[in-house]
């Protein structure tokens, strides 16, 4: 059993494609993830950093795309990604009212590493995504600082924690404890096998909608937990990485399929929820000083369904993992979110852990 295969621990499944070695987004070579967490009393928040590839993404950009499934969000950087089809910085995740502090940290880090930024090379497009952790975290206090975001960048590594860590510390999912989850799939297209990984920051859903193994797990859990009434609002950020060569058009199609992974858990993608997906390929880089024609490769759309399946399965599993890996947290004003794992063996669809 893989260390990060939380579904297998509980006898669950999220599809049929084979999983990568770590079963995280870091199975895509070069992708690393780091967290900085604040977990004390009313402060339950943090930052998660995803570094998409070795070297400078500013000097050698990655092909990328994004898709807004429902736009109740405050993400920074999507406009340029959609216009140019490239990613030129790491990606930071944090809470809604800390986007500015994370943006400042990321822009400062890029300026320090690239003397041409703000001069001959123009400015830089930092990408920061958010979810509202205000139920467990005193979000008005704005405890996240640029320094905390820099700590998350510095902590990035191939092996990283999941659950109530980093940006996921104060998040809720279906009124259980949410957080950071990740999963990966292997896709054999012709003579090549590629890796696709997803990382989800889960913070959405009403408990009675939560579905697990085709069963209304949330409706039964609500009877046990007496969950408060809630109108669907929150967010889900999905980051998708692959080592398959793809165009921005193909990556946007992957982003769109992440919505199917989200809805497999029961979500209606509510009016007040911000579901946003970003995808990038590590297969080839675009030099900032490139002139003339570019010879870029892409997989054939003949294999598109395999990659769609990989996105749906890995997004679905990443969300479930974010809930199963997270411990129960009590935070702001005594608000509490129970780990889904604490209900194992007590609700339909969720057996007791095997080990």
Automatic annotation (TrEMBL):
GO molecular function terms noted in the UniProt entry: aminopeptidase activity
SUPFAM superfamilies linked to this entry: DmpA/ArgJ-like (SSF56266)
Pfam families according to UniProt: Peptidase_S58
Record InterPro entries: ArgJ-like_dom_sf, Peptidase_S58_DmpA
Superkingdom, taxonomy of origin: Bacteria
PANTHER family in UniProt: BLR5678 PROTEIN, D-AMINOPEPTIDASE
Family: Belongs to the peptidase S58 family.
Protein name stated in the entry: P1 family peptidase
Lineage: Bacteria, Thermotogati, Synergistota, Synergistia, Synergistales
């Amino acid at each position: 059993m893989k260390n990060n295969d939380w579904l297998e621990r509980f006898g669950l499944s999220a599809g049929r494609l084979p999983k990568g070695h770590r079963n995280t987004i870091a199975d895509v070579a070069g992708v690393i993830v780091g967290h900085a967490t604040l977990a004390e009393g009313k402060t339950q928040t943090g930052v998660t950093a995803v570094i998409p590839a070795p070297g400078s993404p500013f000097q050698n950009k990655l092909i990328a795309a994004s898709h807004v499934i429902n736009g109740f969000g405050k993400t920074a950087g999507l406009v340029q990604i959609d216009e140019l089809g490239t990613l030129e910085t790491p990606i930071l995740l944090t809470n809604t009212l800390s986007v500015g502090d994370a943006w400042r940290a990321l822009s400062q880090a890029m300026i320090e590493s690239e003397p041409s930024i703000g001069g001959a090379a123009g400015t830089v497009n930092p990408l920061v995504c958010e979810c509202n952790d205000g139920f467990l975290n005193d979000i008005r206090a704005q405890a996240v600082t640029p320094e905390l975001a820099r700590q998350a960048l510095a902590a990035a590594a191939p092996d990283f924690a999941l659950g109530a860590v980093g940006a996921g510390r104060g998040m809720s999912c279906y009124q259980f404890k949410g957080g950071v989850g990740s999963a990966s799939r292997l896709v054999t297209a012709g003579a090549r096998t590629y890796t696709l990984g997803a990382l989800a920051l889960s913070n959405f859903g009403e408990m009675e909608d939560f579905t697990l193994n085709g069963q209304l797990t949330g409706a039964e859990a609500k009877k046990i937990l007496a969950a408060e009434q809630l109108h669907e609002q929150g967010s889900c950020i999905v980051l998708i990485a692959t080592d398959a060569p793809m165009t921005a058009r193909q990556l946007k199609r992957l982003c769109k399929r992440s919505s199917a992974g989200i809805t497999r858990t029961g979500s209606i993608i509510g009016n007040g929820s911000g579901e946003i997906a970003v995808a990038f390929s590590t297969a080839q880089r675009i030099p900032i000083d490139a002139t003339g024609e570019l010879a870029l490769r892409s997989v054939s759309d003949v294999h598109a369904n395999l990659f769609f399946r990989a996105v749906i399965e890995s997004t679905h599993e990443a969300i479930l993992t974010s809930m199963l890996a997270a411990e129960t947290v009590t935070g702001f004003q005594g608000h509490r979110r129970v780990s889904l794992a604490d209900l194992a063996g007590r609700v339909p669809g969720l057996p007791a852990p095997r080990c």
